[in-house]
Amino acid sequence: MIPNKGKSEEGKVRKLLKVEPLPDGSGHFFNLSVQNKVLNIDESIYIPVTKAEYTVLTSAFNYILPYLLGWHAYANSIKPDDSSRGNNASPRYGGDHEWNR
Asked: Which residues belong to the signal peptide in this entry (predicted)?
């Protein structure tokens, strides 16, 4: 989404999020920059994040991303066959298992 799209102020606000590894390898560095040419503002926020915190954030984003994109609705609409679930081992289908003897 472009801020102020279609207006004279379009493109004058820039938001940038950078994630870079720390020099000592102990974690990552989050840098959020906002440039607003309309209000003449240039601000940055720097947040150091440990490896453990980064792992938690990555896991949370991996979980929530399909919901944010709406993929969960598509995945929930696909129902696999009930016949393909569970253990339907049958000797006539080559399912000769120890527990069927």
From this structure: none
Structure tokens at 48: 């150091």
Which residues make Cβ contacts (< 8 Å) with residue 53, sequence separation at least 6? 27
Cα separations in angstroms, 62 against 58, 65, 69 = 6, 6, 12
Query: What are the pLDDT digits (tens) for 27-86?
Result: 999 999 999 888 899 999 999 999 999 999 999 999 998 888 888 788 788 877 655 555
Distance from C-alpha of 56 to C-alpha of 53, rounded to nearest angstrom: 5
Q: Which of 11, 21, 15, 62 is nearest to 34 (CA)?
A: 15
